[in-house]
């Protein structure tokens, strides 16, 4: 079990270290960027799936979850775990070639993979965020560039020094997304 402590302080940046088995959790409240950040170090796939599921429990219609990470780092695995909260029957695969897949859940889930998108104008053309009642999971979100939503949840997955583990950084931009981080 991961313990998360959140404190409101007047300083620009505050860090807390919590040691829980092999997990080092760093929480940074950054009032300059208006984002709440959580860093989780050295987690295995099972713990990463639990984090993803707990995030999904707190998502809302119109939520935008942007995922960043190298090839094979676990972005699609993270999306699979979040989607399981909404339906255990849906088979989630990477939408690399389709670019966007829509899952028939309540609310609907739009799962996009922007890896093959060469230009943000192409993203405008497909009208990615057209359904304000859907939840959006966007892999390779760095390709959004100027289309990046102001309010969003960012999940950055990186390989740990020990390849069996990942380091995860979660950033909440906007009050609704900060509330999600307060609940996980």
Automatic annotation (TrEMBL):
Domain of life of the source: Bacteria
Name this polypeptide is given: tRNA threonylcarbamoyladenosine biosynthesis protein TsaE
Subcellular location: Cytoplasm
Gene Ontology cellular-component annotations: cytoplasm
GO biological process terms, semicolon-separated: tRNA threonylcarbamoyladenosine modification
GO molecular function: ATP binding; metal ion binding; transferase activity
Source organism of the structure: Tepiditoga spiralis
Family matches, as Pfam families: TsaE (PF02367)
InterPro entries: P-loop_NTPase, T6A_TsaE
Protein family membership: Belongs to the TsaE family.
Higher taxonomy: Bacteria, Thermotogati, Thermotogota, Thermotogae, Petrotogales
Main localization category: cytoplasm
UniProt KW keywords: ATP-binding, Cytoplasm, Magnesium, Metal-binding, Nucleotide-binding, Transferase, tRNA processing
């Amino acid at each position: 079990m991961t313990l998360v402590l959140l404190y409101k302080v007047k300083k620009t940046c505050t860090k807390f270290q919590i040691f829980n088995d092999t997990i080092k959790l760093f929480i940074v409240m950054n009032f300059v960027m208006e984002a709440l950040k959580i860093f989780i170090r050295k987690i295995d796939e099972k713990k990463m799936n639990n984090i993803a599921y707990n995030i999904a429990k707190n998502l809302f219609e119109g939520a935008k979850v942007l995922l960043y990470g190298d090839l094979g780092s676990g972005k699609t695995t993270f999306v699979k775990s979040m989607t399981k909260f909404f339906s255990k029957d849906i088979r989630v695969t990477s939408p690399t070639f389709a670019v966007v897949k829509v899952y028939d859940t309540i609310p609907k889930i739009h799962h996009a993979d922007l890896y093959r998108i060469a230009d943000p104008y192409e993203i405008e053309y497909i009208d990615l965020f057209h359904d304000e009642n859907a939840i959006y999971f966007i892999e390779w979100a760095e390709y959004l560039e100027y289309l990046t939503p102001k309010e969003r949840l960012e999940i950055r997955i990186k390989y740990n020094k020990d390849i069996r583990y990942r380091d995860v950084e979660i950033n909440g931009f906007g009050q609704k997304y900060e509330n999600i981080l307060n609940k996980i």
